[in-house]
Design a protein that fits this description.
Blueprint (H helix, E strand, L loop, with lengths): L12 H10 L4 E5 L5 E5 H17 L7 E5 L4 H12 L3 E4 L6 H11 L1 E6 L4 H7 L8 E4 L15 E3 H6 L15 E6 L9 E5 H12 L11 E4 L11 H8 L2 E4 L6 H10 L4 E4 L1 H13 L9 E4 L6 H11 L2 E7 L6 E4 L11 H8 L4 E2 L4 E5 L17 E6 L17 E2 L5 E11 L5 E6 L4 E3 L2 E3 L1 H10 L3 E11 L3 E10 L7 H6 L13 E4 L13 H8 L2 H5 L1
Parallel strand pairs: 1-11, 3-4, 3-5, 4-8, 5-6, 6-7, 10-11, 10-12, 12-13, 13-14, 25-26
Antiparallel strand pairs: 1-2, 8-9, 14-15, 15-16, 17-18, 18-20, 19-20, 20-21, 22-23, 24-25
Helix pairs in contact: 1-2, 1-8, 2-3, 7-8, 9-10
The chain binds adenosine monophosphate.
Length: 550
Amino acid sequence: MNGLMMQQPLLISSLLVHAERHHGDQEVVSRRVEGDIHRCTFREMAARSRRMAKAIAALGVQPGQRVATLAWNGYRHMELYYAVSGSGAVLHTLNPRLHPDQVVYIADHAEDQVLFFDLTFLPLIEAIAGRVKTIKTFVAMTDRAHMPATSKIENLLCFEDLLAAQDDHFDWPVFDENLASSLCYTSGTTGNPKGVLYSHRSTVLHTFAIALPDALNCSARDVILPVVPMFHVNAWGLPYAACMTGAKLVFPGPGLDGKSLYELFETERVTMSAGVPTVWQGLLAYVEANDLKFSTMRRTVIGGSACPPAMMLAFEERYNVQVLHAWGMTEMSPVGTAAVIKGKHVGLPQAQRLAVQSTQGRAVYGVDMKIVGQDDESGAELPWDGKASGELLVRGPWIISTYFKSEGGDPLVPDAHGQGWFPTGDVATIDADGFMHITDRSKDVIKSGGEWIGSIDLENIAMAHPKVMMAACIAAAHAKWDERPLLIVVKKAGAELTRDELLAFFEGRIAKWWTPDDVVFVDAIPLGATGKMLKNRLREQYGKHLLAQG
Ligand code: AMP
C-alpha cells in the first residue's frame, strides 16, 4: 500500500523559491572583482536568477547540457547556481587554480557549451578560448562598463547585458528529481580528473543534512561567510543551505587574504565561516600580528584536510571561536561526518573534549560508513574500538555511484549482501561512539618495517610547535626500514628553529619509533588546486632524501 502524501520532486529551484518567499529581505553581500562591495536580497537574487534562466535558454542551452563557470564566491555565481540547475541544465564549476591544459581537458570532457567567468580569469580564458572544443559562448560576469577589451575571445558576451534583455516572468520547470544538476571534477592527485555528477535529489537531501544542528548548524540567525570556493564541491553546500534556512550570506570574492577576510567578518557581523586549514592559517597570522579579536564570529567549519588540534585550540582559547571539524569528499557532495560532541562529552576537561572534536567526527544521517582490513581480501568489517584502523568505505543517497561517463570503471566495492560501498581512499579508526578518525590517505601511509605510521599525527605534532607555520610528513625510502617518516617544514616568519629542536619536540608525544628521521626546511609547501598539500610532489622531490644521507 502506498502512502498518501504529495509527490513533489526535490528540486534545487525550490530552495530559491523558499528563500524568496520566506526570507525575501535577507541579504547577500559580495566583495566584487570590480573592487567594491555589492548588496542584494534573496528577493532580488531570485528575480535575477529567473532572468538568467531565460537568458541561458536564449543562448541555446538545452536541458542536460553543461554550463561552466570559472568564478569566485559572489552573487552572480550564486545566481548561476540556481539559473542553470533550476532550468534543467547542469552547472559545471571549473577550478581556476588548475593548469590551463587541465581546464581544457575537463571542459572538453564535460562538453561544456557556455562558460561564465570572473574578470580575474580573463588571461586564463584567453589562453583556452581557441583550444576548447565545445564551448561556443563566453560570458564575462560583469557589467558593460567593466567589459574587457580583448580580441582573443570570439563570442564574448556581458552578464548584465544578458540579464537586461530578459524579464523575470518565468516558472521554474518541474522534472524528475534524479536528473543531473551540477558537475564537479575531483582534484585527482594522480591521473586525469574525474567528474562527479550530482542530482537535484542528492543536492537537496545533502542540504537538509548539512543544515542540521549537529552538522554545519545553519539558521536564519546566522551570517555565513563561505571561504571554501564555490568551485570546490559547491562551497560544501552552503549556497543551498543559506536558501533553505534563510541565513545571510557574505561572499569574499577574490579577497582571501587575512586582512580582507577579517574586514568582512567584522563589517558584516559574520557568525560562521567554512574553509580549509591553510586559509585559516593566513587569517590567524593576520589577527595575531595585529592583536585583533572577532566580535561576532563564533564558529567555523574546517575540513578538506585534517585540522591541526593546535589550530582548534588557538581559535577556541584566544578568539572564542568553536572549530567544527568536518570530513567529506567531492564524491560525497561533500559532507560525510562532523566532529560535534554528544551529551556524554559535555563537561569533559578541555583536553579530552578537544580530543573528540579533533577526530573527523560522526556520520550525519544519510551517510553510512565502515572500515575494512587494508590487507584483507575478504573485506570483513573491523570493530569500532578506536584502535583497529582500515580502509574507510561509505554509502548513502548523496554519495557517488559511478563517475561521469563511467570514467575509471565501477568504483564501488560490493559487500556480502551485494550492496555497493564507495572506497574513500582514507584510512581510519572508528570508536564506540561512532567518531571516525582519519590516520592517513592510503597512498600517504608510511610503512616502516611492515608497521604503519600515520603521517597526519606527525604533522599535527609539528604544527603544534610555536615556530612552525606548515608541516608535511611523507614516506621517504629507507635502506633498512623500507620507508621512514620525513618532515618537510615551513617556519613562521622570522623564527629560528633547528632540526634537533623540532625533533626533540616529538619526545613523549608519540611512540619513539614514529619520530621522523629528518627535517627539511623549505620556503613553501606546494598546494593543490583545493588548498591541500601536494604530498606526491614532495615525495618526488624528497622521497630519496634519507637514502642520499646514507
Ligand atoms: P576532495 O574530494 O578534494 O574534497 O578530497 C577529499 C579528501 O580530502 C578526503 O578523502 C580526505 O583524504 C581529505 N579530507 C577531507 N576532509 C578531511 C579532514 N577533515 N581531515 C582529513 N582529511 C580530510
